[in-house]
Amino acid sequence: MTTSTVTTPNTKPKNNVLLNVILSIIVVALNVLMHTGIFIFLRDSEMNPIIHAILAILWGVGGIYLIYWSLNWAVERYSDLWRRRIQPYLFVGPAFLLLSWLLLIPTLRTLYMSFLDESSSKFVGLANYAAIFTNRLLLTALRNNLLWVLFGATACIVLGLLIAVLADRSSFERIAKAIIFLPMAISFVAAGVIWKFIYYYQPGNEQVGLLNAIVVAFGGEPQAWTSMMQPWNNLFLIAILIWMQTGFAMVIFSAALKGVPEDLLEAARMDGAGEFTIFFKIITPFISTTILSVTTTIIVFTLKIFDVVMIMTGGQYDTEVVATQFYRQFFMYRNFGYGSTLAIVLLIAVIPVIVFNLRQMRKQGGF
User: Are the C-beta atoms of 93 and 86 separated by less than 8 Å?
Assistant: First the structure.
């Protein structure tokens, strides 16, 4: 007589499920209470600044570790099935909550304020949005942002790709790339200060600005490049963006070009294809995803341009962009309705570019 044995999966008793849920809630509550208490203590304490900074750093590093360790310990008490379901949210959840606190909630609050008047005390509906597209200054800012995207972003991408291709075939590739990439090492504020000296104009006196000094040396007349030469002064400001961001595009494109199979290029040359044909028919399609990523990145960055304009002209002489006009309306004129509306318009302009980029990445298996 034989007996059959039935194996059952290793599952935890059902009466432990409720206990695990309660334990998880307790762990979350303890984390919230403890870290809130530490935050309040550090905020209100009057200890030595150095000790205060050290404690804040230790809390930042150790606190993050403790949060993940305690939550993971609670999740490990669940069955294998529920553990696999919960753990992804455990590790993504804190980052999502932090981003929601820092980005999503302020965005929703800004959207709400855009429907209010300048003092945020009266609901005005879409009046602020209508005013943006009828006010001359705001229309100028929108026009200038379009110029930055059309000329600035396009020039960065084209020059970055051209320099990457040419440098890849030269014997002094590293030196050339280092020189082109060097402006990326400084901030836009520092770049604005540098170029302010380059464009500097001093009427009736000796010209100390580099560009005017060169013009005068060749017998020309000095020009107020960033003030009186409207609307061309916007192009002189855009040149600063090109000077800084071309190096970024060049580095990314150069890395992508290294991935183009050399035997494919050799086969095309043996078949009689010229360099232009190889570039447009082989290289460009092969690195099209990189071109798309760099393009969307620079466009988003260009739409948010602020530092250069504020340092060079302060938004005067018809050089306003949306970001500078937002700063002026919100923080200087205290017109919270206009300022919030400009911020939302800038967000709306950026969203389609980001969505398009994410869709392309999803098609190519990026997600």
Answer: no
